[in-house]
Specification:
10 strands, 5-stranded antiparallel beta sheet, 2 domains, SH3 type barrels, 1 helix, 140 residues, 13% helix
């Protein structure tokens, strides 16, 4: 198995497959898009037309641990100018600056390295909510 150079793939690629005519894929729920001739095209075949996608067939991009920079195109949480954490996508770097886009607003901008983190799991969100509730109770 060869090492996949995720940074060389097209923006938005989430999977790679050696067998299909287009190697770079973007899997979104039941939809699979292949990167053909510089554009994303919905991949239609008998295998994918059954309302499900067997993602085990593909090699998925590595998850980001929060160390260093994330893979291009991965979803992240970033701190807004108002101090709240929002969900967006890591776009890349330009002249040493981190570039990310916000899913909710579509705005693209620069971030500092400490202003982004991996998407939190539901368990992490629940733990944060419990800690906030305990802190509020103690403040009474």
């Amino acid at each position: 198995m060869t090492e996949i150079k995720w940074g060389k793939g097209p923006f938005g690629a989430t999977h790679y497959n050696d067998i299909l005519p287009c190697h770079w894929l973007r899997v979104d729920g039941c939809k699979v898009h292949g990167f053909f001739a510089g554009v994303w095209v919905e991949y239609i075949s008998n295998d994918f037309g059954k309302g499900h996608v067997d993602c085990a067939v593909y090699r998925k991009s590595k998850a980001w641990s929060g160390e260093g920079l994330p893979p291009v195109g991965i979803d992240i949480e970033f701190k807004s100018s108002g101090g709240e954490w929002l969900v967006g996508q890591y776009i890349g770097q330009f002249n040493g600056k981190i570039i990310a886009g916000c899913h909710a607003t579509g705005v693209v901008g620069y971030l500092q390295s400490g202003e982004m983190r991996p998407i939190r799991t539901p368990e992490q969100v629940a733990a944060d909510e419990r800690e906030a509730a305990v802190a509020a109770w103690r403040a009474l």
